[in-house]
Write a structure and sequence with these properties.
Helices cover 0% and strands 41% of the residues. The chain is mainly β. The chain has a four-stranded antiparallel sheet, with no helix packed on it. Strands 1-2 form a two-stranded antiparallel sheet. The radius of gyration is 15 Å and the shape is extended.
């Protein structure tokens, strides 16, 4: 395993998943229907998938 260098921090990137619209916080990504709010689904070319439980929704063409 690689060693961390000086000054590198591991930080959460969840702030990139939200945007403010009309004074309200809105999620940019979908939430997993099985895991609930707070667990985002990854967007792929042909599907949405949850990294936690493995739930997958295929995109329609």
């Amino acid at each position: 395993m690689a060693k961390k260098g000086k000054g590198t921090k591991r930080t959460s990137k969840k702030w990139k998943m939200y945007v403010v619209k009309d004074g309200k916080i809105v999620s940019k990504h979908r939430h997993c229907p099985r895991c609930g709010p707070g667990v985002f689904m990854a967007e792929h070319k042909d599907r949405w998938s949850c990294g936690r439980c493995g739930y997958t929704e295929w995109k329609k063409k």
